[in-house]
């Protein structure tokens, strides 16, 4: 395989206590799904679920059938531990309890 017929990419998956990153060279026209399979992610970390949780390239959602472009960082997403809005409300409530004078309207 010559460099003209190959694309370079990186497959990433993060979880608590886990950081998976694997750089790959694939034939031009390979799909994101093929890149994830070639990385060995699903064998090493079966909790990764690209079909159920989705994938993206540089934080933009993509399909497993989309073609890999040279230099792509393929991210396999995971479920959120907490709803971001709910977490923010809890944080503010804790801050109000800790510093009640700070939150008094003047």
Structural features, described:
The protein is α+β, with helices and mostly antiparallel strands and 106 residues long. The protein has one domain: Beta-grasp domain (Ubiquitin-like (UB roll)). It is built from four helices and five strands, in the order E-E-H-H-H-E-E-E-H. It has helices spanning 32-39, 41-44, 50-53, 84-98, and strands at residues 6-15, 18-27, 55-57, 60-62, 72-76. It has a five-stranded mixed β-sheet with strand order 2-1-5-3-4. Strand 3 (55-57) and strand 4 form a beta hairpin. It starts with 5 loop residues before the first strand and ends in an 8-residue tail after the last helix. The mean pLDDT is 89.
Quick overview:
The chain is α+β, with helices and mostly antiparallel strands.
Describe the SSE topology.
Layout lengths: L5 E10 L2 E10 L4 H8 L1 H4 L5 H4 L1 E3 L2 E3 L9 E5 L7 H15 L8
Parallel strand pairs: 1-5
Antiparallel strand pairs: 1-2, 3-4, 3-5
- What sequence of helices (H) and strands (E) makes up the elements? EEHHHEEEH
What structural class do the secondary elements suggest?
alpha+beta
| Proportion in β-strands | 25-35%
> Class, according to the CATH hierarchy?
Alpha Beta
CATH 2nd-level architecture? Roll
pLDDT averaged over residues: 89
Strand order of the largest sheet: 2-1-5-3-4
- Shape descriptor: elongated
CATH topology: Ubiquitin-like (UB roll)
Sheet having the most strands: 5 strands, mixed
Question: CATH homologous superfamily name?
Answer: Beta-grasp domain
How big is the Rg? 20 Å
Q: What is the number of domains?
A: 1
